[in-house]
Amino acid sequence: MLLVKRRTFGQDNIAYLLILPFFLFFFFFRIVPVMMNFILSFTRFDLVNIDFIGLENYKILFRDKFFIRALANTGIYTLFTIILTMPIAIIIAILLNTKIFLQKTYRAIFFLPHITSMVSMSMVWLWLYEPSFGVFNQILSSAGFSKILWLHDVSTALPSIIVMSIWKFLGYYIIIYLAGLQGIPNYLYEAATIDGATSVQKFFKITFPMLKPVTFFLFVTGLINNFNVFEQILIMTDGGPMNSTTTIVHQVYTRAFFDFLLGYASAIAFVGVIIIAIITFLNFKYGNQGADL
Q1: What is the mean pLDDT of the chain?
Q2: Torsion (CA) 76, 226, 276, 42 in degrees, nearest 10
């Protein structure tokens, strides 16, 4: 009995030793930076001088029209990206879950943009949106319509970014929904067919309810990921025109590396972390699907 206990104790130590690198990495590269960011948010820091100023950064923050605009833009971007991507993804996933010609090829085509870097995709769409010779404006001109200043007009810049982002992330949503669809037992559909249910009834009575845990997962992760939008903003518009596409992360980048207000940038970043934490908590509290994940 003593031998068994000793062996178990030794095996536990080896297990803890094997997972130790992950926790060390997580602590030093995740927890410590967040703590340092929180401390810096109470200072005036310009890479040379650092002074403790208490809550002054936070007082300025909520009177800053650029931050308020960035917060609104981030919310609009996140909301429309999610509510448009999810229904499109579930429809395409259902189509790709049926036996069609070149099924695997279509799946690969839809997933390809997701695994391609955001920088390269942003450059491609920057060319597509080009005002004079871009593909989209060439199509409009050929159809007899006037050209649109996609990324150079206040009214169209953010919607253009949203469309690009939907195209970029659609493949990921489709793959996750496909996995969810393939986990639904076939006997449910067979029983519904025997009862005379139509395809629409099967979707709303079987498919959609069974996909609720998947939908909840995509909704929560989508909120977090979209709230951190940055690369396409920086490359395609750099927050313009007239701050119509600036976001919270873009404001952190601008204030830290252009204005050298690192303390103020830390305050913006910490507010963003708090907002994401609150949204995630509310989703798990009232989403009614957290326990199913």
Answers
A1: 89
A2: -90
State the burial class of residue 166 (Cβ atoms within 10 Å of its Cβ: 0-12, 13-18, 19+): middle
Report the interhelical angle of 65-96 vs 103-115 (nearest 10°). 160
- Cut 0.90: pTM above it: no
Residue 126, classified by CB atoms within 10 Å of its CB into exposed (0-12), middle (13-18) or buried (19+), is middle
Kindly state the percentage of the chain with pLDDT values over 90. 62
* pLDDT exceeds 90 at position 12: no
- Among the listed ranges 6-15, 102-111, 245-254, which one has the minimum average pLDDT value? 6-15
Could you report how far apart the first and last alpha carbons of the chain are, in Å?
Answer: 39
Q: Is 252 exposed, middle or buried (0-12, 13-18, 19+ CB in 10 A)?
A: buried
Domains of the chain by range and CATH? 56-292 (1.10.3720.10)
Among candidate residues 45, 63, 38, 42, the one with its CA nearest the CA of residue 53: 42
